[in-house]
Design goal:
The protein is built from 10 helices and 11 strands. The chain is of the alpha+beta class. Helix 1 (63-75) runs parallel beside helix 2 and helix 9 runs antiparallel to helix 10. The radius of gyration is 19 Å and the shape is globular. The structure holds L-homoserine. L-homoserine binds at residues 13-14, 19-20, 97, 139, 141-142, 184, 187-188, 261-262.
Amino acid sequence: MNYIKAFAPATVANVACGFDIFGFAVDEPGDIVEVRRRDEPGIVIMDITGDEGRLPRDASRNAVTVVMQHLLKKLDRLDVGCEVTLHKNMPLGSGMGSSAASAVAGVFAINELLGQPFTRHQLLPFAIEGERIACGSAHADNVGPSLLGGFVVIRSYQPLDVFTVPVPDSLHCTLVHPDIEVNTKDARYILRNEVSLKNTISQMGNVAGLITGLMKEDFDLISRSLVDVIIEPVRAILIPEFNEVKQAALDNDALGCSISGAGPSMFALSKSRLEAARIGKAMQETFELAGISSKLHVSGINKEGPKLLEKR
Ligand code: HSE
């Protein structure tokens, strides 16, 4: 194989109550990586589109190429050379798992180029290293679902224990990205390190409720459990009109609405694509009233994860 073109999807991390432990993939947007073999060893970045020149072109500092480097090292194949082009289809600092989608597309592509020496699950530790480079924390709730598809739980980080949970087929996601940027590092920095016992109890109840609701296809239970008493109250201040936009989603039959990842994107879950579109319209109109433009993505839960677009 000489050339691979691969896509990896955006993701909604945390899903209200599951900070750093829950995430799911959506159908779009997503990033695309092209990898082409070259004769000389080493990975070089040929081009990055869609990032307004903001991502590092130095392969030792870019999440996409760093994860590939980790994979080659593990295989003891530092003799391999390749040229990488990254097409970013979502803004940086969007809360849609932008860096994770790039890292997953990259690690998936090089694994395909080398004839799949690793399973998807085995690619996860490499992809996590991309998050460490991109935002200073090795969380897996974006790379996990982008790589494995579906709704993902990270039960433990050390050792890594990651699995997917079945979700109702009709479950849909509304993802609204207001035209502002939130840096994940900053959004993590403002969080408190201590959590009260009272809030821990509430959060654990909601975590258990959400998983049970998804597995039993119990939409009322899903709805009651999409509550975050720990992270959302702190981070909401980073998103202008957060309360109003959330209320607009709930008024339009959303099962729940919260911050997508570290924000500023907000997500809502609902029982159909039609509802998801209506909720999105209401959320966008509420941002618009405050003079904030936004972009809307409506999607089912993407069970597929990364996709091979071309190989030759
Ligand atoms: N769980 C991470 C956070 C996701 O909320 O900081 C970042 O996209």
